[in-house]
Hints:
Blueprint: H1 2-10, H2 13-19, E1 24-25, E2 33-35, E3 57-64, E4 72-80, E5 86-94, E6 100-105, E7 118-126, E8 132-139, E9 142-150, E10 161-167, E11 170-179, E12 187-195, E13 200-208, E14 219-222, E15 229-237, E16 243-250, E17 265-271, E18 282-286, E19 309-312, E20 319-325, E21 334-340, E22 351-352, E23 367-374, E24 379-386, E25 397-406, E26 418-427, E27 434-435, E28 438-439, E29 446-449, E30 453-461, E31 469-477
Amino acid sequence: MRLLRSLAAAMGAAAVAALALATGPAAAASAGSTQLSGMTPFTDCPPDSTQYTLNSETEPFVAANPADPDNLAVIWQQDRHAWGSSRGIVISVSEDGGRTWERKPLPGFSPCADTIGRVTNPHIVFGPDGTLHASVTMIGDRASVWTTSSQDGGTTWGTPVALADDTREVIHDKQAVTVDPRDPDRLYAVWNRRTMAEDKHDLLLATSDDGGATWESPRSVYRPATTAGTVGAQVLVQRDGSLLCVFFESDHPIGGVATPPLPEQIRAIRSTDGGRTWSGPVTVADITLNVPRFPGTSNQFMAPGIVPDVALDPITGTVYAVWGDAGLSASGSAVGMSASYDGGRTWTTPRKVNATPDSEAGGTGQAFLPQVDVHRNGTVAVTYYDFRGSTPGAGTVTDHWMLTCRGWTCPLNGRNWSERRLAGPMTGLEGVSMSFGAPFVGTYVGLSHDDESFLSAYVAPTGTPEDPQNVQLATTPAVPRLP
């Protein structure tokens, strides 16, 4: 098969070496942050079109090795296309706790060696044994989902494995891989598949029992009753071994929009038998999708809340979910949160959790692109961007924030949360990569933790057209401050 031959060719050491960037101290960015990206490593690769932004990075994801606290990894899309996806995937790895980093194309997914189309949705996760698993969606002559694994913390990688490989009559979107924390050989991958002829969507699950070397054929574990699709699905393995999958469900943004508009919901399904059977959907929240705008204008910033994020408290078993929501603030773009104390069966009333002062619709009170994580000590962190620093006539100012809290009452009120600025004030957001007709840094960013800190991988605008944005990593002590 040409697809597999192209991937095998891309694994050649010469191609990777030609694109690898040297190891060394990373440049300091905002206070407490480290810049991980730079100029594209794909300068000498053949252009696949003219509709991409050179030196742009989007949708970073971060992971820390539980078997080696000095081993960190951040992955992102490189050179974003105007109508979705990117030219290639880049990963940056540290073996010394973030003091130095090596960044290089993820083998098998660079435009210099691959002829199989564009790539998107980079995702990484470490297993409890230290194996690093990466997954990617490809769009081109065919639509496919791939995983690849590294046994040495991200330095070298195995041959990519296809979880799904279809014609362009099928669209795959937003895959995520979860490793069972009790069994490093047990992996779960979930994503949305749309069959264009039927205009139907399925939430697919694929499982592996050999650490990702082989996968069972993907199968549908949930199909919406309407033409709605699922986006941003993630699986959590709970303390009793049961599985919880949380996702956004509504009109699907890839491949067309249903008419009339469908309800917008955060939903969850559960499995108590390792993914063989699943419950019916539970509605976590009925939401109104946020559409951020640059303050004082009608110009959209492409950061809708279609990708919820979830996290599990390892001490109490509480599950947290966050998303972007237009209905929780007058500004029209807030961070919604709900939590479950019973494994995903029931959920708390959704509430605005971001500390951004509210404003009129489309004003400086807008917050967007939230992530949530829970440290092993029970501290909960929520990150987001907002526009609170902007003033009329002076252009858009963006800040990146983190809220922290500890205790079972965190989801119920805002009194126990404390906020700190991770980055900002930043200018130049209007000049970042264009995608889907508006400036775009992604539908998610990254948030994880190591032994002592939270790790926030985010996109920072530069205000420089030749290098409009960069991935940065903020390291923050995983101890809640007093409100």
